[in-house]
Design brief:
The longest helix is centred in the C-terminal third of the chain and has 34 residues. It contains 4 helices and 2 strands; from the N terminus they run H-E-H-H-E-H. Helix 1 runs antiparallel to helix 4. A two-stranded antiparallel sheet has the order 1-2. It is mainly α and 131 residues long. It has one domain. The model has no long low-confidence stretch (mean pLDDT 88). The radius of gyration is 19 Å and the shape is elongated. Helix content is 57%, strand content 6%.
């Protein structure tokens, strides 16, 4: 067994990409249910979980290493957003324009995370080829 922390950052990026993928699913479901009476929009809580897990250490490298001991701590939590709020008389609280903006933002986030993972793997590949 090789004891290495080489994949620590990739593991965190992977969890973030999984969360972004889940958020995409929730947002598209919100859009699909925009005309469903009494439907309440759903979202996930991931960024604050990640921030809490990575805070408290002196260096980011140590915080990422500690977070990798139990990655299940970084599982996103789905919640119903403003469950007591309704924009319309039918009880629905989904605003299509807002959801589309969230979808665009989240798509950029996901694409960036995948690009960062590809860059990490490219660096590993470069190191392995030059040895």
């Amino acid at each position: 067994m090789i004891n290495t922390d080489i994949y620590n950052y990739v593991n965190i990026l992977d969890k973030a990409a999984d969360a972004a993928n889940l958020r995409n699913q929730l947002i598209t479901n919100n859009i699909a249910n925009a005309s469903t009476p009494n439907y309440k929009r759903k979202d996930i809580n991931f960024e604050s979980i990640l921030q809490a897990e990575l805070s408290g250490e002196k260096t980011l490298q140590q915080a990422v290493k500690n977070a990798n001991y139990d990655l299940s701590i970084l599982d996103p939590q789905v919640y119903t957003d403003n469950s007591s709020l309704s924009y319309r008389l039918d009880g629905n609280n989904v605003d299509i324009a807002t959801e589309e903006a969230y979808l665009a933002e989240n798509t950029l986030r996901y694409d960036t995370l995948v690009d960062l993972m590809n860059q990490e793997y490219s660096r590993y590949d470069t190191v392995l080829r030059n040895n």
